[in-house]
Amino acid sequence: MTFTRREAPGGSVLSGVRSFTGTQRALLGSGFLVNLISFSVYPYLAILLRDRMSLSMGQVGIVLGLATFVQFAGGVPGAALAERIGFQRCLLISMILQTLGSLGFVVGGAWPAVTIAALFLRSAATALYSPSVRGYTVHGASETERPRLVAASYATGNVGVALGPVVGSLFIHEPGGMFVAATVLHALMMVGHVFLPRESRDEHEVVEPLRRALRGLAVLPFAVTALTLYLHMHFYQYLSSYAEDRIPTVFYGAAMMGYSLVLAVLQPLIADRVEQMRYTKAMALGFGGLAVGMIAFTGGNEVAFAVGILAIGAGNSVLLLKNVLEALNRSKRSPAVVFSHQRLAEGVGAFLSGLVGGGLYYQFETAGQLPGFWVVVAAQCVLIPPALLLVYRRFRRPQRERTGS
Predict the structure, then answer these.
(1) How far apart are CA 322 and CA 23, in angstroms?
(2) How many C-beta neighbours within 10 Å does residue 364 have?
(3) Predicted pLDDT at 145
(4) HEC profile for the chain?
(5) What domains can you pick out in the chain, each with its CATH number?
(6) What is the torsion angle, in degrees rounded to the nearest 10, for the CA atoms of residue 66, residue 69, residue 75 and residue 76?
(7) Cα atoms in the Cβ-side hemisphere of radius 13 Å centred on 80
(8) Which of 53, 87, 349, 394 is most buried by its number of CB atoms within 10 A?
(9) Cβ–Cβ < 8 Å for 70, 196
């Protein structure tokens, strides 16, 4: 891909936003609000389930783990449904489910069992919403428009992720008020999605049956995305525990909000460059940033945490965006299906991180050598990506030889 003229990064972003259609802007706003609502509730779900249901934290973990699995793995059948009935209808169904889920959290104050049903309802709604909104956002876009739209979609979502916990903290002593507000917002969004235009359908587009939902999977982006999330979730899941008694809670919260804002600001600025970048270079920058960040955490003070989070934010800004763009370029399936494949890869990576990372963290914690945990994770950031590429190329070579013979 080439450009006819050079644009300053800021000008590129502004011109890109101005070129978006009204529908695309509405979808970006929808993604922001959905994440804002979700992440105003998400940090407090463990406490909510424990208090309402009198569950142990182990039981809470199982419930949340199953809900997360539904949210990630459900994207594949969700995308298959979007191929059949269209993005606008899927988004409307998702908003109906989101509204019912939020209402269930309200009712769960009186009937606690409804809380779990509401949690899984919201997870199913997210599984349907995520591939549909991203698929609709890039629907009909040219190859030159697609990187900016993908970056803008992730950027607005990350702003919602950053601001959600801040909004939720305002209701920390009155969760009922938070759920009422979420119900009202979801109901208003449901009405708004009624007025979204139905997308035009390509008469030549082949709609695969559900049993072939994984057909056309872009193997390398899927594997790299799973690895990215596997390594990233070590940072996301265990840094809060490591931060206890090392840095102030307020500083940690602000730093994590800053991480989401780094992605929100940086990804639109670098979208065009990332699109042109070789995948191997993007992997080197992304996993390199993760490695630097993990090593920085061993310092155990405010400066070390800030440097580490900034390095990971910069690396993920490149890698997460490139993974999606590479999958879209390599697969012949519809964007909604490609996004669901990437969503499934994220779920696989997150699951593996919980499976491996928890035990690893426990071993270093009991040994009183927690900084060593981050050294081991950093080593994986350096060693596993080249090994993954080597394995991929080794398996691809015989296939090419058979094709050429």
Answers:
(1) 24
(2) 18
(3) 85
(4) CCCCCCCCHHHHHHHHHHHCCHHHHHHHHHHHHHHHHHHHHHHHHHHHHHHHHCCCHHHHHHHHHHHHHHHHHCHHHHHHHHHHHCHHHHHHHHHHHHHHHHHHHHHCCCCCHHHHHHHHHHHHHHHHHHHHHHHHHCCCCCCCCHHHHHHHHHHHHHHHHHHHHHHHHCCCCCHHHHHHHHHHHHHHHHHHHHCCCCCCCCCCCCCCCHHHCCCCCCHHHHHHHHHHHHHHHHHHHHHHHHHCCCCCHHHHHHHHHHHHHHHHHHHHHHHHHHHHCCHHHHHHHHHHHHHHHHHHHCCCCHHHHHHHHHHHHHHHHHHHHHHHHHHHHHCCCCHHHHHHHHHHHHHHHHHHHHHHHHHHHHHHHHCCCCHHHHHHHHHHHHHHHHHHHHHHHHHHHHHHHHHHC
(5) 20-197 (1.20.1250.20), 216-405 (1.20.1250.20)
(6) -110
(7) 13
(8) 87
(9) no
Q: Which residue has the tokens 């992997």?
A: 283
Q: Which of 167, 320, 166 minimizes the C-alpha distance to 232?
A: 320
Residue count of the chain, please give it.
405
* Nearest one of 19, 322, 316, 268 to 152, comparing CA atoms: 268
The predicted pLDDT at position 399 comes to: 55
Written as six digits, the tokens of 107 are 């009712």
What pLDDT is recorded for position 245?
Answer: 86
Task: Report whether 275 contacts 154 (CB < 8 A).
Answer: no
Other C-beta atoms closer than 10 Å to the C-beta of 291 total 23
313 contacts 397 by C-beta, under 8 angstroms: no
- d(CA 350, CA 69) in angstroms, rounded, equals 9
pLDDT value at residue 65: 72
Q: How far is CA 162 from CA 118, 158, 242, 254, 255, in A?
A: 24, 6, 21, 9, 10
pLDDT at 204: 52
Residue 201's pLDDT is 67
Residues of the chain with pLDDT under 50: 1-14, 401-405
Amino acid identity for residue 207 in this structure: V
Q: Residue 31: name the closest of 150, 147, 130 by CA.
A: 130
Is the separation of the CB atoms in 86 and 201 below 8 Å? yes
Helices 113-137, 45-53: axis angle to 10 degrees equals 160
Q: Are 220 and 279 in contact (CB under 8 A)?
A: yes
pLDDT confidence of residue 234: 87
pLDDT at 202: 61
Whether 124 and 74 have beta carbons less than 8 Å apart is answered as yes
